[in-house]
Structure formats: structure tokens, C-alpha cells
Amino acid sequence: MQRLDYWNTHQPAWGVKKIVPLLNREGYKVSHEMLRQLRSEMGIETIYPKVNTSKSSKSARKLPYLLGKLRANNMIWLPNYVWAIDISYIKMGYSHMYLVAIIDWFSRFIVGWDISDTLETAPVLCTVMKANEQYGKPAILNSDQGCQFTSYDYMMYLLDSKITQSMDGKGRWVDNVIIERWFRTIKVENIYINEYLTPRELRNGIGHFIESYNHIRPHQSLDYNTPAYVYENCFRQQ
Description:
Layout lengths: L1 H9 L5 H10 L6 H11 L25 H5 L9 E11 L2 E10 L5 E7 L4 H15 L4 E4 L8 H9 L3 E4 L9 H18 L4 H17 L11 H11 L1
Parallel strand pairs: 1-4, 4-5
Antiparallel strand pairs: 1-2, 2-3
Helix pairs in contact: 7-8
């Protein structure tokens, strides 16, 4: 699973036929059928794969995707208008954890994150609540259709907080592309090159990376400003 996550992060367009020979050369004796089964369990998609940390329930209530026209018309023009949230598999030595992260769509500023060894709703909801306490509440919070985001507790919290909930279309990774790209960045630039062995090491490493990402690293899409500068400066100008 770790090597699948690695190769699909680096080569998201490669399918089973290309990945099987790579894994075989690395010493993993996998067949095409075995790989298809693992990809299915992990929720990996060829165009842009991710570990399927968010299997939805057939009976769960699905909500429409609200960002289509906003993105097409460049109407996401200030911080705390749209946030995006997702969960990703993170390898750790011979084990793994799950990283939940929330990004401000306009500024690319990471407003909340946490790691957990479970895929339950509680750590996801806790991350949202902490972000709201520290940075305020977004007008819209977008996610995929995962069970955490369609759970009663999560949906009721957003409803009570007057946060409009938006959901990706089924299998539409591009609908939440901002957070998907960020997960790819942290994996390539931090997770894969550090080989964290314990949850404490992982938490510290992710914390340092996010601090640098938010406050030091310039972004071309932000005219080479940092996410923190754009996020904070927009509020000063209002």
C-alpha cells in the first residue's frame, strides 16, 4: 500500500500495466489482479489517485457541488469564503496514519490539520472546530462524499454553524483540486523523504512543513507571496 501510494503520487496517470512491472522490480511479487484489488480497496484512481479514506454510505445524504460557477468566474476572491477539507493516507515506518487537512481556497493557507490512526468522524470534526475557533468560519466548506463528511454529527455541526456544505461529484477529484494538490506536495517534499517512524515524529514533521508552507514558501499562483501573507493581508485591507 505504501509503494502504491508512492507511485500513484509521483505518476498519477499510470495504471495497473505500468505499476505492476515497477513493483515486481522492487521485489513485490504482485499480479495484475492483486494490484486491481489493492487499488480498489485503497480507492486509487488512475487520473489522480489517493487512498480511499472516504468511502461513502449508499444511504448517506449527498449535497451538490457549489464551486463550479464560482471557480469558472473567478469569484473565490477573498479568504474564508471557501475552504476545502480532505483526508489522506500517510505512511509511517511499517505502519500508517491518516492526515486531515483544511485549506483556504483563495490564499492556499492551511487553516487546520491533524493526524489520527482511525478514519472516524471525530478527528475530522475536531479539526474543523479548532480551525473555526482560530480563524473564523468559511461561507462554504467543500469535501468529497466520504462517510466522515456525510455523517450526522459533521453535517449538523456545519448546519448549526451556518457553514454551507459542498460536495464533490462522485469520482470527481478535480472538484477539490486545491487540497488534492497540497497532499501531493507534502508527500513528495516531506513524507517520502523523511521516513517517520513514530506518530510524534510524524506530527512534528508535518507541523514544521506546514509552518514553512504557510509562512515562508512563496507561491507562483500568489505572485510569489506566501499563503499567510495573502490570507492576513486581505483581512487588513477590508
